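Chapter review: from sequence to fold.
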Amino acid sequence: MTDKSMRIVILDGYTTNPGDLSWDKLGLLGNLTIYDRTKPEQIIERAKEAEIILTNKVCIGKKELESLPRLRYIGVLGTGYNVIDVEAARERGITVANVPAYSTDSVAQMVFAHLLTVAHHVERYAYKNKQGDWSDSIDFCYWDTPLMELAGKTMGIVGLGNIGKRVAAIAQAFGMKVIAYSSKPANMLPTGIGKVSLDELFIHSDVVSLHCPLTAETRYLIDADALRKMKPTAILINTGRGPLVNEKDVADALNEKRIAAYCADVLSQEPPPADNPLIHCPDAYITQHISWATYEARVRLIDIATENVRAFIQGKPQNVVA
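The token string follows.
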């Protein structure tokens, strides 16, 4: 039954639900207002009567928190919660909850979508067929790029959380050797994964996939020094956070053919400025931060976010980060 006295505001609902899903279950928990997008200067006015707000990428800082005296709960429509000043929220007794692990399979799938793009260039050849390249070929087959088999290659994974472990399992299913840089002790790593130092991972990997959180220590984890340690045939994949890599250093390495490819679903600024050094860089394969956005993952996201709100209202908050 709807509690009309409980005001719930979604500040930026469009990317989570552009119209193919429903907020109806959340709407049963209170008086729900949904905004597709909210500019920073609109936050306080839109949320001033709300006890509960949900946000994906709209930042809620100390200034906003001090201007929202009715606010009791912030639900992040995602796993990362760096858009919230959690310390300021904690000081004001505001609960902050996120949605963990909803996109594990989708993000892992994107890692291999990128990797297989480099290995087989399927979209390129499908397009070239439409241009008549195969029809014009004098041979029964046609290719003009290197083609690569994954079996026997070494996948180096930085960070073995939910997504890193799923990527490792898929890599093993392809017949790849998997090594990892992880804070977990070696005896706690999944079967068949070798624990190595970061330098060893860079040196020995044919594919490096980043799955660590963005912290002060991991910002620019991949810089010119790290890239110099990689094989010239190495493929670097980033579906984590854009600032895990120094984008200029990666662009320089690609332009100088010091690594084979950079595949990313994230950039340091999103959407990127037109002069981002990777946008037009050869052998850079950039997608628009969509690995999380499969239909199935977004259904899970809304369901878990709704249950987070329900649990909070019932006095048993879950997935609390502050």
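Two observations follow directly from the output. The mean pLDDT is 96. The longest strand covers residues 154-158.
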